[in-house]
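Tokens as discussed.
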């Protein structure tokens, strides 16, 4: 009898191990293709912001020869003044390592931009993020302004709060006052953090849309459920630079 029970136990273990966990965030393209996005934030000396952006504009081709620039913005509201924020796309971690090695050997990049401009910066920050599986990176139809909303969620990961978060985002999307550009989940940086990038025609059209959203019962219901898992949130209004692929 003990042998039979032991055999049955092993058979059940073989069928159920490893345990399968399903989530709208935890499965999909993130795991299958390895593509990720690096968020870089540069805090510039107050008197050097314009000089830094002009220098990058002149030399952006040297940098984009190595990897894809998704967008480049300056922070207008909601964050530290004189800040440049940019997003870079990589195929995988090996690709990023190759790019960093190539940049270190690129004399033009080093001499024309990097070395002369290091003194203009006060601080550099980096986060590695994945697009969530239910969202594709979208390109807005015309020039506008961008809002980056950052949600710090409770510990437990997307398996705990992913579905309610998706419902809250989609409730805003349905209203159509703002275009969803991308939803990014942090892999390296503060964990359980999600960045949502929106496009608006202007800061005023965004404000009008937000007032409309606050009165919509679908948005109110979805947000009310999602905030049970929310620790904090903040946002920034971003202005695209002239050389940014996302305008």
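Sequence:
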């Amino acid at each position: 009898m003990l042998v039979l029970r032991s055999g049955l136990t092993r058979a059940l273990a073989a069928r159920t191990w490893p345990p399968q966990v399903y989530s709208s965030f935890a499965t999909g393209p993130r795991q299958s293709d390895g593509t990720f996005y690096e968020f870089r934030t540069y805090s510039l000396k107050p008197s050097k912001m314009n000089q830094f952006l002009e220098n990058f504009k002149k030399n952006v081709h040297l940098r984009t020869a190595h990897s894809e620039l998704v967008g480049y913005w300056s922070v207008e509201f909601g964050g530290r003044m004189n800040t440049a924020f940019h997003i870079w796309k990589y195929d995988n971690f090996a690709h990023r390592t190759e790019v960093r090695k190539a940049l270190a050997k690129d004399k033009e990049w080093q001499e024309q931009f990097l070395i002369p401009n290091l003194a203009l910066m006060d601080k550099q920050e980096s986060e590695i993020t994945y697009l969530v599986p239910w969202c594709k990176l979208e390109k807005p139809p015309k020039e506008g302004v961008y809002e980056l909303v950052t949600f710090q969620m409770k510990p437990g990961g997307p398996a705990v709060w992913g579905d309610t978060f998706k419902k809250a985002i989609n409730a805003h999307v349905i209203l159509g006052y703002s275009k969803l550009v991308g939803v990014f989940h942090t892999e390296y940086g503060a964990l359980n953090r999600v960045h949502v990038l929106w496009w608006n025609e202007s800061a005023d059209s965004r404000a009008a849309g937000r007032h409309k959203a606050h009165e919509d019962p679908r948005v109110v219901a979805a947000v009310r459920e999602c905030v049970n898992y929310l620790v904090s949130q903040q946002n920034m209004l971003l202005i695209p630079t002239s050389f940014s692929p996302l305008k």
